[in-house]
């Protein structure tokens, strides 16, 4: 009998990363793959991006809404409650042999709690990472402790997951799905991308993404204002801004972005580009600016410099192509100047990508298949793995 494997996706970015894995699992004979859709995918404010899953020819097994109109802490808690209730009902009727989840979204934590209560084993992708400026830090590590299989992107993160008490035999360095996407994307030319977005990209341009800093009250809005002041210091530069996600404070940042784009002819703002357009935009850019993890994982794979602002990604492994700075206007300006300099861009072109060789989805699928072959099922129960430390 085929194993029933669920793959959860809550955002357009998540689906972009998971897409090659989902397609590979669909083609595998050992399992029946079910795609579970929730979060921003089903929100009109974020573009009803579940349609992109359907357009990719991937069937959706269930859609469970959990995003309300607000983004206050109370709204986020309500969203989590909706996700937990909806997926609790789904798991009662659909007994999965494994649930695959990625990252650190609050919706994902709620779904994992429902799966844990239903005694469904979980495989977690992108565990062991640190983002000290975000509530995601606690969410990610909580998901790690609920999960039975762990697919991490570097040996540094593998050691961290083991340090959290997970047995080494269950923790696998498979590289990053983002690296696989950069290897296999059919890139769009700058000319065609510019026509699609309504902006001339024949000169130098930057890709900008700025998300809320959830552990710093109102700092996301204040920091994006400092960023825009810095962007004004480079009037010859074109900017593609992708809007903030559905975190607390995200809508306020997006209002700022819309106002800025409306008053600047060299700026275009989009809700989300999707994987192909986003990676194409990054590939042709001179610099990625903001506080998104894509500037730390995908941009280095494309040998594009990144200016990482503030503490949102603090604690992550930073490739040599990433320059970090405080959310201060003059600091951002200085760092952008260094990032776009000829010497730094040449150094980035020759750097080594630290996030794997682009075969991540094949490794994950193979490990899952072998786990079922050797054990019959993936046990939910696990023991805490103690590492030896000096007293």
Q: What would CATH call the homologous superfamily of the largest domain?
A: Glycogen Phosphorylase B
Low-confidence parts, pLDDT < 50 over ≥5 residues?
none
Task: Calculate the mean pLDDT score and round it.
Answer: 91
Number of domains: 2
The CATH architecture of the largest domain is 3-Layer(aba) Sandwich
CATH topology of the largest domain: Rossmann fold
The amount of beta strand, in percent, is: 15-25%
Q: What is the succession of H and E elements?
A: EHEHEHEHEHEHEHHEHEHEHEHEEHHH
**Can you count the helices?**
15
- Roughly what percent helix? 40-55%
Give the oligomer, counting copies of the same chain as homo and different chains as hetero: single chain
Radius of gyration over all CA atoms, rounded: 21 Å
| Major sheet | 7 strands, parallel
* Spatial separation of the terminal alpha carbons: 50 Å
**DSSP strand tally:** 13
Query: How are the strands of the largest sheet arranged?
Result: 3-2-1-4-5-6-7
Please characterize this protein's 3D structure.
- The chain is an alpha/beta fold and 391 residues long.
- The chain has two domains: 3-175 and 358-375, Rossmann fold (3-Layer(aba) Sandwich); 187-349, Rossmann fold, CATH 3.40.50.
- 43% of the residues lie in helices and 16% in strands.
- The protein is built from 15 helices and 13 strands.
- The strands form two sheets. The protein has a seven-stranded parallel beta sheet, with helices on both faces. It has a six-stranded parallel beta sheet with strand order 10-9-8-11-12-13, sandwiched between helices.
- Helix 3 packs parallel to helix 4 (106-117) and helix 4 (106-117) runs parallel beside helix 5.
- It is globular, with a radius of gyration of 21 Å.
- The model has no long low-confidence stretch (mean pLDDT 91).
């Amino acid at each position: 009998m085929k194993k029933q494997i669920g793959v959860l996706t809550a955002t357009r970015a998540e689906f972009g990363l998971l897409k090659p894995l989902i397609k590979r699992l669909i083609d595998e004979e050992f399992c029946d793959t079910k795609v579970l859709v929730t979060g921003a995918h089903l929100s009109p404010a974020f573009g009803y991006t579940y349609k992109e899953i359907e357009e990719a020819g991937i069937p959706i097994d269930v859609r469970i809404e959990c995003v309300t109109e607000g983004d206050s802490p109370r709204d986020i808690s309500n969203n989590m409650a909706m996700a937990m209730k909806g997926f609790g009902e789904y798991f009662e009727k659909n007994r999965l042999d494994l649930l695959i989840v990625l990252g650190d979204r609050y919706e994902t934590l709620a779904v994992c709690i429902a799966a844990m209560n239903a005694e469904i084993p979980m495989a977690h992708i992108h565990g062991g990472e640190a983002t000290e400026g975000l509530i995601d830090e606690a969410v990610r590590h909580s998901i790690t402790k609920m999960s039975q299989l762990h697919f991490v992107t570097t040996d540094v993160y593998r050691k961290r997951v083991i340090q959290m008490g997970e047995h080494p035999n269950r923790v696998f360095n498979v590289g990053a799905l983002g690296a696989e996407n950069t290897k296999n994307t059919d890139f769009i030319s700058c000319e065609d991308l510019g026509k699609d977005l309504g902006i001339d990209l024949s000169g130098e341009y930057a890709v900008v993404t700025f998300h809320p800093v959830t552990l710093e009250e109102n700092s996301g809005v204040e920091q994006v204002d400092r960023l825009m002041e810095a962007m004004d210091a480079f009037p010859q530069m074109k900017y593609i801004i992708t809007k903030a996600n559905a975190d607390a404070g995200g809508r306020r940042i997006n209002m700022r972005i819309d106002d800025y784009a409306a008053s600047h002819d060299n700026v275009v703002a989009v809700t989300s580009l999707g994987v192909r357009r986003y990676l194409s935009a990054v590939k042709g850019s001179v610099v990625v600016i903001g506080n998104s993890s894509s500037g730390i994982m995908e941009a280095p794979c494309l040998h594009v410099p990144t200016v990482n602002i503030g503490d949102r990604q603090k604690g992550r492994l930073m490739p040599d192509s990433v320059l970090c700075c405080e959310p201060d206007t003059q600091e951002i300006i200085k760092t952008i100047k260094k990032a776009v300099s000829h010497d730094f861009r040449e150094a980035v072109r020759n750097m080594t990508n630290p996030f794997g060789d682009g075969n991540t989805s094949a490794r994950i699928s193979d490990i899952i298949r072998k786990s079922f072959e050797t054990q019959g099922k993936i046990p939910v129960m696990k023991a805490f793995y103690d590492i030896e430390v000096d007293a």
